[in-house]
Fold:
Amino acid sequence: MITDSRVVLHVGLDDVDSQISGCTTHFTYAVVKELFRHIDCLEFIDYPNLVRLNPSIPFKTRGNAAVALRFEVPYDDVEKVIKIIVDMLEDYTSDLDDKGGSEPGIAVLKGNVPEALNKLYLKALTDYVHVDYLRNVISEVRDLKLPLGITRGVIGALAAIGWIQGEDCTYELIAYRSINNDGGRCVDVNSVREADIKYRDYVFNNYDHEDGKMLITPHGGNPVLLGIRGEDPEIVVKYFRELNICETYSGYIIFRTNQGTDSHLIKRDLSELRPYRTCCVEVALKSKPLQLRGGDVIIKIEDNPPIYAVFYNETSLSSIARKLDMRDELIICGSVKQWSDLTNVINVEKIHINRKVRTYVYNPKCPKCGRRMKSAGLNKGFKCGKCGFKSKEVVKEVANIVENVNKTFITKVGTMKHLTKPQCRYGKEKQCNFIKPINDWIQ
Ligand code: ATP
Structure:
């Protein structure tokens, strides 16, 4: 959309990080600050988007995050914007301790987001994107610049731009440390618990009330001090202001995100399962639950070719899986991994039990008086306590009761993937579109 001498730019960024330092959102924070410093009349048409992609992709460092910035600038400033970002990326990555494996990507699109990028987003969210697919998409898109060429990071950068609007979304306020060290973050856990209780209807996955652990602070040597996830940008700022933070920090930025929305869990047929695909599939169990060493549970869900589902112990789904019966009707959701023996295994994030078959075994009723009989002793049949009838011929009654369970079981809060919708978000889904940020979205 070009209005007079102004233009809307969508800037996608990804893979600006390494295993031990740096992070794409931190780079984004620095870029936004720098753009405000150097570009007059810069107007964001949306919060920066923090777009999570397929959680089973092997190249990811942590949570497979990519970012899209969407703003209006004077047409004449487009080249200046690109130069600022490219120069900053060079500086940022030259500072990183270890660039091992990182392939930063920058994508700059002018105007409206074409459908080809929406499709790329869906694929990058739910499947593996091959470079040939990427090249095809790029050839279809007009008004696109890739200042660093076609790097691996361009997959995430373009997918972030293509994040489909009109779908559910959430927000995350991310604050950054002013010193970058490996040590623990100095945030008072009680203040997190209290804020979490106060705003509990509007926030999620910030505090694990079951285990008494705060979930907002990451570990290790990256620049993130904390991240507060919620339904509303104003609430995450309020939550942040109520925390007791005992180290200096450089500031914060609010992202609009697809976190906690289940957007990666698309319905698939068993025949469509391939390594790296995410899915929700209706399954009929082909084996009883088998417990592995360490408490994980594995179940065969398809014979030819064999496909298994694994329920890891730390996710707490193993205790549900252990009780599954081969006649249960269920849907399992997660992503397909290929194990070293080439078996395809769904790493389960959610189990939805539609109907559960429970088997009940009763002592027989007395054929004479109808009263339920008692055991007459080992191998001696049954006897009636009322009329005294005894028999070795009567057998126990078996009843299979089909129970409509209709319940979803989800991995424990602390082990949840960023994209997984937690229980507390059910019913809070909203239709999101580009939304003009509130005043204090960046500090
Ligand atoms: P951080 O959370 O610290 O930002 P990360 O976990 O997001 O790190 P990245 O550094 O972004 O990991 O690396 C992921 C890489 O994988 C990027 O280069 C991205 O373009 C690429 N990628 C993401 N999704 C897919 C996909 N579905 N298929 C192929 N490549 C993908």
Q: What stands out?
A: The chain has three domains: 6-161, 170-257, 265-415.
